[in-house]
Design a protein that fits this description.
By secondary structure, the protein is α+β, with helices and mostly antiparallel strands. Helices cover 17% and strands 31% of the residues. The chain has one domain: Jelly Rolls. Strands 1-21-18-23-16-13 form a six-stranded antiparallel beta sheet. A hairpin with a 2-residue loop joins strand 19 and strand 20. The relative contact order is 0.14.
Length: 366
């Protein structure tokens, strides 16, 4: 049965909608597109940070920031200008560079946020997690899982620099940030070097158990690179080239952390990947090579030591025009999308390549 409407129906409905909003109610019939959009309404764009600026900041921070005078860490985030309000590189991950000077020890603390360290300069320093020292060389990866005590030390004569990445934007959005400084030896515990490595793998002591479900190990770059080199002749991914994922051996090959996926990516000489998009965001740190990526029709030129990031659901492709390899360390929130069962991926039409409409101009360092 049809409902009779008066001549003032549209005006009355509009006034009713306004009244509901003023009383903290949302009329679904008027706001459905805002509540359930047809596609993701991503509120930030791609961005790139150049190595010369980052290197200058590291140098100046080394001169000014003294850990002995209360600085918790000598690190700084690379912040997407659209995400300044959350200090995020993406909406879920904050990436940073950290410097530890010779002879320094960054004091122990723990936080609910998950974290990783990827070494980009120096060797011989350590991160102690739950009392176990994990020694690092260039391009090694170390994990700091949620709520585990950790500290950093540099016993060498040279500065150490690494990429930090934490999921604090996600934790803060969930209003779940916890942080605790300090920690004495009784709280942290003490484990010998190699404690974890001797308890996981294809063979392990039958009488011993390992207390964590995320292994406290150093993922050695030498092993990762050997695997990538062995497969450089394979077709690889049409969208990512040769892409290796760091995995958790305790979880049957799942991601290293529940919120952060880590990858090593190789673009072979002359390789131009096809464009695609997916529901995860990604952060790339350029280890070697020079080329460009096209993200949402905009060209981003990159070289060694640069950071660039890709928002979720943004078309992207990568180009290595040189005769040398291009190599990235990549961070992604894909584990979150997988656990929530919202991972989606879509290939680009028209032969798989975008038309470049503009070129990104990096901020000049003064």
């Amino acid at each position: 049965m049809a409902i009779a409407r008066g001549d003032n129906w549209e005006r009355e409905l509009s006034e009713f909608n306004d009244w509901m909003v003023q009383h903290h109610l949302t009329p679904t019939w008027a706001y459905y597109a805002a509540l359930v959009s047809k596609e993701p309404n991503v509120a930030y764009g791609p961005y790139l940070w150049k190595a010369d600026m980052l290197g200058s900041v590291i140098k100046r921070a080394g001169e000014l920031v003294d850990l002995a005078r209360g600085g918790e860490r000598r690190s700084f985030e690379v912040v997407n200008p659209d995400l300044r309000h959350i200090h995020g590189t993406t909406h879920t991950i904050g990436a940073a560079l950290q410097l530890v000077q010779p002879g320094e020890v960054a004091p122990p603390h723990r936080h609910l946020a998950n974290a990783i360290r990827f070494i980009v300069k120096g060797k011989g320093s350590f991160t102690a997690v739950q009392g176990e020292r994990l020694y690092m060389e260039e391009r090694d990866l170390i994990l700091t899982p949620s709520w585990m005590w950790h500290e950093h030390g540099n016993e060498t004569k040279d500065p150490i620099v690494w990429v930090d990445a934490l999921d604090y934007p996600l934790m803060n959005h969930l209003q779940l940030s916890f942080f605790e400084p300090g920690g004495n030896q009784a709280e942290i515990g003490s484990r010998p070097v190699g404690f974890t490595a001797n308890r996981i793998g294809y063979a392990r002591p039958a009488w011993a158990s390992y207390p964590e479900d995320i292994p406290l190990v150093t993922y050695k770059w030498s092993q990762v690179w050997a695997g990538m080199t062995a497969l450089r002749g394979d077709a690889g991914s049409p969208y990512d080239g040769i892409l290796f994922e760091y995995v958790n051996p305790m979880k049957g090959g799942g991601p290293v952390l529940p919120t952060i996926g880590c990858y090593a990516q190789l673009l072979r000489p002359g390789e131009h990947t096809k464009a695609h998009r997916h529901t995860a965001s990604a952060i790339h740190y350029v280890l070697e090579g020079a080329g460009h990526s096209i993200i949402g029709g905009k060209r981003f030129d990159w070289g060694p030591g640069d950071f660039f990031m890709i928002p979720p659901w943004a078309w992207h492709e990568h180009v290595n025009p040189a005769t040398q390899d291009a190599v990235f360390f990549v961070l992604s929130d894909k584990p979150v999308m997988d656990s929530l069962r919202v991972w989606r991926e879509e290939p680009y039409a028209n032969g798989g390549h975008q038309r470049v409409t503009e070129t990104f101009t990096p901020m000049k360092w003064q």
